[in-house]
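Quick start: read one record
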Amino acid sequence: MANDLGKRYACAACGTEVLCTKPGVGEATCCGQLMEAKQPKPLPSAD
């Protein structure tokens, strides 16, 4: 799995978040486990 440019990754154990500024091969890890990609927050509607 490759890290995607502009994606945020979060550690489920300690809450650390990182932003990927250079894409590449490898996996983001923290506290001995893989970090999960965060989902984007929905934008409010402009009604």
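The two ends are 39 Å apart (CA to CA).
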